[in-house]
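Comment thread on ticket #2218

A.B. wrote:
> Attaching the input chain for the structure job we discussed in standup.
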Amino acid sequence: MSLQKDSPGLLEKGAEPTGAQILAAIESSRQAMKTQIVAIAVDVNLLRADLRVVAERSVATEKQVTCLQSEMDTLKASVATLEAKTHKLEARVEDATVGMVQLQRQSFAGVKRKLKELGYTCMLLFPANLKVLHAGRSHFFQSPEAAWDWLERNDVVGTPDFLVGESDRRTRGTAEVHTAPRRSTRRCRAGQGGRVIVRSDGTLSLEH
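C.D. wrote:
> Ran it. Output below, let me know if you need it in another format.
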C-alpha cells in the first residue's frame, strides 16, 4: 500500500508508512473531499436556482402563449362575425341599389315615350341615363326632369303629366306649364282639349 501519490509529503520515498502517517493521509484526503463536496454542493445549488428561473420563465411563457392563443381565437371569431355582417350589409346595399336603379329607369318611361312620339332617337343606358340623338348630336340626361327641360328649351310640348299638380287636374280648361331652366310656372287657358307649346323665346301657343 502506498499513499505517497495521494498524500505527497506525508511519506518518505521507500519508507514503510506508519499507522499515524496512514491516518494523517486519510484525514487529508477526507478534508480535500469535504472541500470538493462543498464546492459541488454550491454548484448544485446554483444549477437548481438556474433551473427554477428557467422553469418560472417557462411557466410565464406558457401563460403568455395561452393568453395569445385565447386572444387569437377571440380575434378570429370577431373577424368571422364582421365578415358575416359585411356580407349581409353588401347584400342589402346591392338590393337597395338594384331597386333604386329600377325605379330610376322606370321614371324615364314618360319622357322616353314622348321623345319617340316626336321622332327622336333615344335609348336608356345603364344604370339609369337617357341618351337622345338630336341634330347629329348626342345628349345625355341623368333624370327625367332634365330631359323634360331640354324638350321645353327645344320648342317641344312642355307640360308632362307627372309635373301637373292635382289641383290643376281638377281645374277644367287650365294647364300648368313648367319652363326651363327656372322651373317657374305659368297658367294659360287650354281651350277645348288643345295642347300648349312652349317656344324658345318664352312665348306660349295653343295647338288643337
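A.B. wrote:
> Thanks. Noting for the ticket: The first strand starts at residue 121 and ends at 125.
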